[in-house]
## 1
Amino acid sequence: MGEEEHLSNSPNPDTEITENPSQQEYSWPAIRFDVPPQRTSHFSRQFRTASNPNNFLKGVKWSPDGSCFLTSSEDNTLRSFALPASANEYVNGFSIAADADSYAASLVMNEGESVYDFCWYPYMSASDPITCVFASTARDHPIHLWDASSGQLRCTYRAYDAMDEITAAFSIAFNPSGTKIFAGYNKLVRIFDLHRPGRDFEQHSTLQGNKEGQTGIMSAMAFSPTHNGMLAIGSYSKTTAIYREDNMELLYVLHGHEGGITHVQFSKDGNYLYTGGRKDPYIFCWDIRKSVDVVYKLYRSSEHTNQRILFDIEPLGRHLCTGGQDGFVHIYDLQTGQWVSSFQAALDTVNGFSFHPFLPMATSSSGHRRFLAPDDGNDELHLSGDENCASVWSFSVASMVENDVEIDADDHNNSQNLLQNP
């Protein structure tokens, strides 16, 4: 496929610079975290094959328009699951869904090598096929831009090392305007123009001339959601740094984690930054307006795993949810830093959690790498359906007033109506 065709197929941010008006007018429901969520969909069987019976998930992210979510797993595969028009049957409990999936993935995309990171185009909308794309990066591969409606590869963004061999990005993120892809490498950040696939890029060292700055592999990145030009990058050197998006000027470096940084995320107002590390039991909250001290720490069970554990902040920006090795999702109040509640999401490490962008729903992923004894001739560990799985959760919402009648979201039928007719 020629480069001109790639360009014509790439999304045009100029035509999708604003959000869907219906989403702007939509009032996000206040989720009730004191009521355990219902599990509405469950997926495990399709993640296991004869060639890889111990395959496990590594993360999950909901699309910006909420129409589908994307999973990454150890079999080097990305899977897209479309949200069904109706999901009336709850699958609570950890036995009834052991041998059956709610439905099959709508798209399956194989990367060939281990997937390091993936992210959605920020203005993705199923109603506009041109914008239905996401990016991924895998070992020994360039950055791939995938078509989320067909599963086809749109184009690639390639970086080369000093030996003129392709070098893979360890983390990627679209800038808020959707015009560039920022990619993290070893002591480097490369910036690709979305409309110019190929090997053209800007390159910025994370080390200053006096050798100060950020060293190591740039392992996680996130932009401030308020379009203030702030970019946070985590490194396996246990540091997180704040940069200016326009010129990659280093503003300051945050220290304190016990392990390499695996996830960074800004608060909805852009004033706070949340960082999590490998084999580190705490998520740190930083006030980026005065970055000297940690505001508070949020505990999660992750002291004994090298796995990347992704957390997420609900659309209203008041609570953060994180998984851990204990199989539970823990919910924290971001105003106080206090634990609110928890619920069991799996019988394994919950390594991913992602809120729906505007409905009171979320999805989780679980699993971890298992090692068989050399003398164990059985290659299968006979995992249950609640290990190495993905689930969709439906939360109760605070009461709403509709036609002068108060609707209690604890009521099963009414909460389901709210989901289907927001």
Note: Residues 412-420 form the longest helix (9 residues).
## 2
Amino acid sequence: SDNIMPFNQGTLVILSILMAFLAFSIVLGNGLVIIAFVVDKNLRLRSNFFFLNLAISDFFVGAICIPLYIPYETQGRWDAGNKLCVFWLVIDYLLCTTSVYNIVLISYDRYQSVCNAISYRNKPSSISRTATFMVAVWVLAFMVHGPAILSGSKDQTEKTECRNQLLFTDYYIITTSILEFLIPTILVTYFNYCIYWSLHSRSRVRGSLVSTPNISSSVQGNSMTCAFFPMVRLPKPDEEVPSSSVKKIRKKSLFASFRTREEEETASAELTSLSHSNSVPIVLRAQHELLRDRKIAKSLAIILGAFVFCWAPYILFTIIRFACNQRRDNSWYTFTFWLQWFNSFLNPFLYPLCHKRFRIAFMKIFCKKKHTASTQVSLFTQGQCRKI
């Protein structure tokens, strides 16, 4: 077959080592995410289930797709039979597309948590609803390539070659490029834009809150004006105040304090999505949530950049090969082909491994003995202190 570039023996050994290392790294990184999710119950939140779904798809990229392709890449021919070839094609396209759709799902979930914080926080995290989203990602990903590959497998004439024969049909190239790359890129970009716009608006609101003191009092004659309380007339030192007036002032101030607290809670609900404590000032809570959401926006921007970097070259070269009717794989096309799989290596570092909850879970896994010993020492010290 002429679809694989010939290499000398030394180059083949180096390439085999690099490809095996990539597969091992993908399995290791995503496997750690899966193990952490199983071991630590604190990770079983709605958004983290989507991380798990992504890790599962990327895990099997390193466990199935790359190991089956290494002999084909190094030997230049497919000797595993037509059935295994069809299986490999379906699984490879399924897993890669599922990984892309999981990125969209995670971005959508982060968009909801930032831009629709109130409804996102109050909406019950139903396991069935989360599972429906996870399964839908796999079903949609299969529908993009699966039926077409299975129907076109009958036209697989060359037993020494394993490729998707529909890559040279115009309707297939256009449809899959739109469904697999263009629409996901537009959606993730849109979610990023909405998040950044929300953060920009909230930054302006927070700036106005900080510039206005919480309680600014000024004495003008016999009156005191407060930011959160209505104007109250203070009696003169020698002025007698009727008891009925005192009761009215107390009732009015008490009503104002309750009304202010309700207004504060409403404002904090619009500005924050996690903190429920009314003892923390609204400005501090808003600032805390703003910093958290900025980290989310930054991570989504990195996600979008990594996705476009890993997928855009392959889509571009696939279209060029179709336009030029080039059936032979040159070195640049092979590089972009592997770049897709490299995205499965990056994903564990772009998602769970950069989140505090997952880092704590990894510390529990790898430093279990040390963590247990430090906990016992801490309890012993507290007991001695109580005795003293």
Note: The CA atoms of residues 255 and 262 lie 11 Å apart.
## 3
Amino acid sequence: MLGKVILEEAFALPRLEAKTRWWAGLFSTEPETHVKEIQDLTDLRIKHADKHGVGYTILSYTAPGVQDIFDAKEAQALAVEINDYVADKIKLFPQRLGAFATLSMHNPVEAADELRRVVTKYGFKGALVNDTQRAGPDGDDLIFYDNPDWDVLWQTFIELDVPFYLHPRNPTGVVFEKLWKDRQWLIGPPLSFAHGVSLHVLGMVTNGVFDRNPKLQVILGHLGEHIPFDLWRINHWFEDRKKLLGLDCKKTIREYFNENIWITTSGHFSTTTLNFCVNEVSSDRILFSVDYPFEHFSDACDWFDNAEMSTRDRAKIGRENAKSLFKLGEYKDCNAKVV
């Protein structure tokens, strides 16, 4: 289909190429190609998009990004630099490219102020944060965003009417040493990404983030980081056990998925799995994405364009849900028919 919208699409700063190359060596079978693609914000991306029927792309800074920096001043300075950099790079392509804010998550007021700055000044479409923020003198402290101190940030998202994308990052510090060091092949998509993000977002649910901020919209990649496959079991234990023991969530886990949580297809190109998620959370809450350059446009788009699903669901997942969530105006092929 034409006019697809994609929204988990990474870039990196050219001045940090040495770090980018080091990270690429950990997971990419073609590190030189990866470095070239992730540092390009316009030329290669738009060529790929034209070839594969993508009308609009929302860019975000690559993981682990600012969440890996445990010095608060350094993290904030880098976040501002990244946001100004991407805004300048995409300003000539308003009908093709948008961006998510990069935020330092050391301080909720500071994060809220930076979000407001880039949404109002540059028209950014929300923010993408790479799971917990490293903090403390040795980087072993982890900041979660599920206590009331962070409501000032969530209220800013609601006021600006933009979503929050909770993206994974690699385990570091003591978490790496204790859990993953002896089983490193499970780091990333095989397990650690879903492990981290599912803990974080379910913490947001159980610690009342959505009850206090009922209009907050949160996006999860990779078809929901395993949570949709456990929805029945989570709901059963929350409703039939945990609430009797004191859990005070105002709604069911399914209601939070219906009202507050979106999932994307980024890096998860299985028709069987997608159809399962459609049945569990409905096509109203699913968004198409690629996860470029960690994944290929051809793998994602060829799969999605030919996957067995209704024409209505393909249009909703491929572009219509994103057009509504991000309030997109005209962009390339936005009114094209599904093919």
Note: The chain has one domain: 4-325.
